[in-house]
Amino acid sequence: MDAVGVERHFRRILLQSLKKDLYEELNYITAIIEDQPKNYQVWHHRRVLVEWLKDPSRELEFIADILNQDAKNYHAWQHRQWVIQEFKLWDNELEYVEQLLKEDVRNNSVWNQRYFVISNTTGYDDPVVLGREVQYTLEMIKMAPHNESAWNYLKGILQDRGLSKYSGLLEQLLELQPSHSSPYLIAFLVDIYEDMLDNQCENKEETLNKALELCEILAKEKDVIRKEYWKYIGRSLKSKHSPNVEQNVPTETDQQ
Questions:
Q1: Residue 19: what pLDDT?
Q2: Which of 19, 20, 38, 88 is catalytic?
Q3: Closest to 216 measured CA to CA, from 194, 228, 231
């Protein structure tokens, strides 16, 4: 524990020993956080106070004020998640997240909060919830096709279920491709085709050729900075799924 941490710890001992007004202390730490919103120690001190008081009534509004200053403040989001989970304050949080995404669809912290809320409430096993989330994310992608956060969210909620198994997704992405193309969309298509190949799809040769063509587009046009990576992915797919190639996994030398 550093010097500041020791000081805060000793302060908490005094607060309890002297039976000080904890709401007064909460007001004090509010002012400190407003001045130093990225200081871990003051957020931890606040958390302890809220635990002692068993009163989260001020927290969500206060955190929202801090996030208005910096919507990606890690400590504020961490505290918000703790408060919501500890005191079961799930109501209206999804609406809050949607409002923030309207303001900045590229904010990865807000996408993470969306996943946190749904994972801890309805979950994604309900087809209605999953369908809603897929369509919501696709609408956000249409607004900002090069937004990596939305693509990561879409992959995150579908990957364990199999990207190729979600009905209609491939067709929707192919429809988007001419007008909303991005490296992320093309990479997602490669992932879908790979999942189809791994699950022994029909027309395996045709699917493999589509995946290899997209890897080439990424390497030569859309994601040139990672061209060696996409060349490696293409070689891996060809080695694994082409009947005309000996089934060897590419070595580290192949990746260079």
A1: 67
A2: 38
A3: 231
DSSP H helices in the chain: 3-17, 22-35, 40-53, 59-69, 74-87, 93-103, 108-119, 127-143, 148-158, 169-180, 183-198, 204-217, 227-241, 252-255
Tokens found for residue 87: 């005191």
* H/E stretch holding 124: none
The rounded distance, in Å, linking the Cα atoms of 33 and 14 is 20
Given a cut of 70, whether residue 252 has pLDDT beyond it is no
Which region holds residue 54: left if phi is over 0, alpha if psi is between -120 and 50, else beta? left
Distance CA 192, CA 56 (A): 44
**Digit-coded pLDDT (tens) for 167-179:** 999 999 999 999 9
Q: Decide if 178 contacts 136 (C-beta within 8 A).
A: no
CA dihedral 206, 171, 168, 233 (to 10 degrees): 50
What's the pTM value of the predicted model, to 2 decimals? Answer: 0.88
Judge whether 155 counts as a catalytic residue.
no
pLDDT one-digit tens code per residue, 140-159: 999 999 999 999 999 999 99
